[in-house]
């Protein structure tokens, strides 16, 4: 994947560049706003990782300029500000996702992957399928190996999120934000408890597990070999 | 009530009352002195007008007297006369039958069928005769009444003008006061940009200008506070970010599993610092009140039900029971994200500080003009003296020091309740702890 990282903190940029390259991405780095804007406007990237606080030209201004110029590359905004208004402001300026510093590298990686392969918004999906698990989004039904599985509304949402991100890591924070709309960290492991109940319904009695725990990162749905 | 509770109206009313009393006293004094002066004038005339009659008597005795008396009695404004013997027997004239002592006296007499008050001067002529001359005293009374009447009218006019002016003044004052208090309310509600309108150049305008300068100063302080918070967020997060990245990088590179576990432990510590830091910043943000601009209509009942449903499995896994008591929709004006966090904090607080097997019950109630959220547990409860202090940042009960948690959960609950103009209270749940947050209901 081809990434653009716009970050003024040299040490952070060096670390992120190296770690992302180790993860198999091609990374270009811009350390100030104008350079980042020129690079973002002139080259096709899969994802732009943009620091919000930059000297001279700040991240939001770059983002607005890009969106005004109809550059639709997914943008992940990195920020030290996690006020509620700051998040809303970032998303309204055209960011696709928002990550508060400091963050775990696996969190950044998972979100970059989630953004990069996002299907175009105009494409309406009505059926999701992973292996022999099938979700009908119109009828709100789930079957595995043609057997009907009854899910609670939250379990259905959780499964839909996992299936839409099949083959990619989904972190606990992504689930809290995407399903519960929690932009804070609850002290209770509600993701784990809901996930274990979902797993019991999806995977129990089947030879192949579809929901996998990725140690230290989160969960991934895939048809294991 | 018109003008009720208005200090300007009270002031105007007091002023009017004082002025009216002064006018009344002035009127009474004027009446009395006018009356005295008129009486003196009257008596002087009684003295002067008998002179020609006495002259007649002195020159030619009783016939001369009677002649002069007849002349003096003619004419429209003439005095009344009477002659009687020293023993009081009437000789001639309308006043001849009066029994008066010497000197001036006031008597009543029937004249042409009308009872009149007369002021009469009785003079001893010597030689066995007495002369009486007098006039109707009604004129003195009429004059006094006129003076009183005039002052009465002035008094009434003064009262009416005073009351009307007082009302108008208090209206005008109230309008300007309302502008000032409206601005203050808006500022309390988080609109720090509002200023008191300044009109003209009087004492109130000068007060408004002073208030506006104070507000500018507060605004500048708030801005610098926000700037400091933002700077602290940035300045502290940057090194923490680096620290976290270094630890993360070391953990990835560590070959020895024990070494890696050690670094991962350090990473968890850094994350715990960051969580506390984020919670503090969030409480400050909520307390600053800026979030009210984003308020929407929220059904507290549905919101609490969702939290109860989301936390029930986790509570069950920890050996607790989390129950939700259904109720009618409870609409309030608020920020659903913050209200959710508040509810989550209350639920987590109850789950964390009660032993396994306890039950936590969530419910909402609709009261006139208010909606309440109630979280009650049947755990050990909290002594009354410590309940209110639990809302303080970092305050923890002695027995909970070893329990996980930042000590900021209930501080956040308090901040969110206040942001919504609500009130959070901790009570005896008999036997456990009962948390109750009351919000004003949505107006529209």
Would you write up a description of this structure?
The complex is a heterodimer of chains A (225) and B (444). By secondary structure, chain A is of the alpha/beta class. Chain A has 2 domains: 2-116, Response regulator (Rossmann fold); 127-221, Arc Repressor Mutant, subunit A. Chain A is built from 8 helices and 12 strands. In chain A, β3 (47-51), α3 and β4 (75-79) form a beta-alpha-beta unit. The mean pLDDT of chain A is 89. Chain B folds into 3 domains: 1-183, 2-Layer Sandwich (Beta-Lactamase); 203-288, Helix Hairpins; 295-440, Heat Shock Protein 90, CATH 3.30.565.10. Helix content of chain B is 56%, strand content 19%. Chain B is built from 9 helices and 12 strands. In chain B, the strands form 3 sheets. Chain B has a 5-stranded antiparallel β-sheet, with helices on one face. In chain B, α4 packs antiparallel against α5. The longest helix of chain B has 51 residues, at 138-188. Chain B starts with 6 loop residues before the first helix and ends with a strand. Classes of the chains: A alpha/beta (225), B alpha+beta (444). Chain A binds chain B through residues 9, 11-12, 15-16, 19, 53, 80-85, 88, 100-102, 104-105, 154, 180-190, 192-194, 197, and chain B through 230, 233-234, 237-238, 240-246, 248-249, 252, 270, 274-275, 278, 281-282, 285, 290-291, 294, 309-311, 313-317, 335, 337-338, 340-341, 344, 347-348, 351-352, 404-405, 409.
């Amino acid at each position: 994947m081809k990434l653009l990282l716009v970050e003024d903190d040299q040490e952070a940029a060096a670390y992120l560049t190296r770690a992302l390259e180790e993860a198999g991405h091609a990374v270009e780095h811009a350390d100030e706003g104008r350079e980042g804007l020129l690079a973002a406007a002139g080259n096709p990237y899969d994802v732009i990782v943009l620091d919000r606080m930059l000297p001279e030209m700040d991240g939001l201004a770059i983002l607005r300029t890009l969106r005004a110029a109809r550059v639709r590359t997914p943008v992940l905004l990195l920020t030290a500000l996690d006020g509620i208004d700051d998040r809303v402001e970032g998303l309204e300026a055209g960011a696709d996702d928002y990550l508060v510093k400091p963050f775990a590298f696996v969190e950044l990686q998972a979100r970059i992957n989630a953004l990069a392969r996002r299907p175009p918004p105009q494409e309406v999906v009505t059926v999701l399928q992973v292996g022999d698990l099938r979700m009908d989004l119109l009828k709100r039904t789930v079957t595995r190996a043609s057997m009907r599985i009854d899910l609670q509304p939250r379990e259905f949402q959780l499964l839909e999120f996992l299936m839409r991100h099949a083959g990619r890591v989904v972190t606990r924070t992504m689930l809290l934000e995407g399903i519960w709309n929690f932009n804070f960290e609850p002290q209770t492991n509600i993701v784990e408890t809901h996930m274990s109940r979902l797993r019991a319904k999806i995977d129990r009695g089947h030879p192949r597990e579809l929901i996998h725990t990725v140690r230290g990162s989160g969960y991934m749905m895939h048809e294991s070999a | 009530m018109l003008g009720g509770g208005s200090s300007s109206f009270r002031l105007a009313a007091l002023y009017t009352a004082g002025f009216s009393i002064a006018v009344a006293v002035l009127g009474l004094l004027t009446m009395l002195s006018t009356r005295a002066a008129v009486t003196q004038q009257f008596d002087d005339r009684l003295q002067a007008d008998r002179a020609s009659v006495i002259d007649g008597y002195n020159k030619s005795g009783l016939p001369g007297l009677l002649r002069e008396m007849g002349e003096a009695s003619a004419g429209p404004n003439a005095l009344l006369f009477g002659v009687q013997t020293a023993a009081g027997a009437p000789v001639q004239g309308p006043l001849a039958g009066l029994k008066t002592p010497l000197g001036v006296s006031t008597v009543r007499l029937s004249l042409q069928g009308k009872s009149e008050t007369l002021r009469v001067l009785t003079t001893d002529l010597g030689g066995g005769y007495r002369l009486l001359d007098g006039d109707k005293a009604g004129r003195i009374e009429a004059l006094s009444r006129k003076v009183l009447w005039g002052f009465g009218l002035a008094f009434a006019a003064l009262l009416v003008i005073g009351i009307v002016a007082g009302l108008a003044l208090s209206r005008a004052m109230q309008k300007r006061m309302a502008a000032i208090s409206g601005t203050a309310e808006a500022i309390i509600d988080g609109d720090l940009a509002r200023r008191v309108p300044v009109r003209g150049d009087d004492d109130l305008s000068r007060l408004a200008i002073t208030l506006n300068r104070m507000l500018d100063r507060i605004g500048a302080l708030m801005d610098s506070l926000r700037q400091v918070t933002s700077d602290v967020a940035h300045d502290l997060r940057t090194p923490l970010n680096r620290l976290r990245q270094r630890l993360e990088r070391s953990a990835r590179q560590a070959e020895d599993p024990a070494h890696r576990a050690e670094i991962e432990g350090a990473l968890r510590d850094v994350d715990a610092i960051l969580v506390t830091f984020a919670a503090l910043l969030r409480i400050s943000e909520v307390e600053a009140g800026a979030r009210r601009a984003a308020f929407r209509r929220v059904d507290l009942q549905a919101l609490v039900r969702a939290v109860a449903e989301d936390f029930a499995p986790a509570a069950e896994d920890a050996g607790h029971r989390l129950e939700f008591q259904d109720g009618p929709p409870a609409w309030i004006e608020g920020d659903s994200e913050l209200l959710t966090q508040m509810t989550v904090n209350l639920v987590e607080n109850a789950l964390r500080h009660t032993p396994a097997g306890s039950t936590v019950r969530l419910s909402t109630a609709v009261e006139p003009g208010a909606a309440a959220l109630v979280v009650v547990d049947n755990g050990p409860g909290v002594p009354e003296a410590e309940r209110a202090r639990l809302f303080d940042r970092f305050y923890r009960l002695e027995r909970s020091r070893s329990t996980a948690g930042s000590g900021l959960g209930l501080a956040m609950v308090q901040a969110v309740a206040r942001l919504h103009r609500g009130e959070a209270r901790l009570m005896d749940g008999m036997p456990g702890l009962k948390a109750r947050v009351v919000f004003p209901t949505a107006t529209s």
